[in-house]
Fold each of these.
Amino acid sequence: MKTARLEAFSDGVFAIAITLLVIEIKVPEDTHDLAHKLLELWPSYLGYTISFLVIGLVWANHHAMFDHIAVADRMLLFLNTLLLLLVALIPFTAGVLASALRNGESERTAVVLYGVVLVAGGFPFNAIWEYARRDHRLLGPTITPKEAQAISRRFLLGPVLYGIGTALGALLPVLGIITFALLIPFYWLPPLLTRSRRGVAASDRPD
């Protein structure tokens, strides 16, 4: 089967999950000293920002992955459903993290929970790609086996890095949060740089 319906359903889940994040930012009921009360919401702002960018990153890589996956079967649909199950859980973990930081209690548990969900999400994400690229059976002509293998190595690194962040968060919560935040530009920038280099190379080619 074609992947259009799978992608449309996935985009809907991504959109809902990323929108639900803002619900955690509660409007102050008492507007006396409003500036101070808004500043007190910084844990919610932090959880919202990191989680919004993380979900956006997963969506972008999911979109890039399905640029090369031409067809889907029931197993691929199942693996994609597992990924979406964990993506939909991120707003909950973001709320737990913000609440723990705001109350100054159980920050370690909250950071570990957040990281565990990110690590777990990496498994179905990688499973989708590995299943699709096996014998190049679900991939289209837009990518070679060698290029698919290079993408695979990059994807496989994700759960490892998020696992390191989770372990650091178990020791010191702020280190885990910093690691999760730093992984966002790490995973955004290389594709942008690669695309830029490809554009330069294309402009150098004679017509």
Note: Confidence is low (pLDDT under 50) at residues 192-207.
Amino acid sequence: MGSASLVLFARLSGLVIAVLVVYWALLLVPHQGLTYSTLHPLLMVIGFILVSGEAILIHRWLPGSRKTKKAVHLWLQGMALVSAVFGIWTKFQYQSGVFSNFYSLHSWMGLLSVSLFAAQWVTGFMSFWHRGEVRTTRTTFLPWHVFLGLYTYGLAIATAETGLLEKLTFLQTNKNVPRRCHESTVVNGLGLGLVLLSGVVITAAILPKYQNSHSGNEKLVYSSQDRPKCLTS
């Protein structure tokens, strides 16, 4: 599967996930509406995961210079970070106390993934606007930036999966929904969609680019530091 096909598949998967999470949060649960409880999955799935995934794919499809791609990547990641911060903020709005909702594995993983994401964004911002660093230092840091970026994205997906499982288990334990019902199917479908999306996005990020040479043969495209351009940021 080529790069363009992976990007298209990721976009279609993201669209299905967005529709499912909106349907589940706003339409499937009766008389709930737009509350802190429904804002949390909307912000974390659409605003954080889908937008950050799109930022990862920027280097695969956006035309223009490397500087332009890095700028768009940076600002999309900034939007994702703002959504994540507000998504966590919604969990502080319950009457039972500030830290009462941060006791589970889901909450701990969420705090870790957002903290790592924030650190990644700050280092990316500093690297983009301050170009006086020694080139060897930037080259050495690049693989770690890529690794931590993909690791954080995968951690965010895993956090969302634990959140879906936690919510569904809570509803079934309290007999609000039966084990086999329409809502369970939607939540399980959302979880599978997130797993599929993460695989497509990460694959698109790590595969080297190909282009046709003048001889008609395909060749790998590398940057001046002998690193794949698709991994630069």
Note: The helical segments are 3-28, 36-61, 66-90, 105-129, 135-173, 182-206.
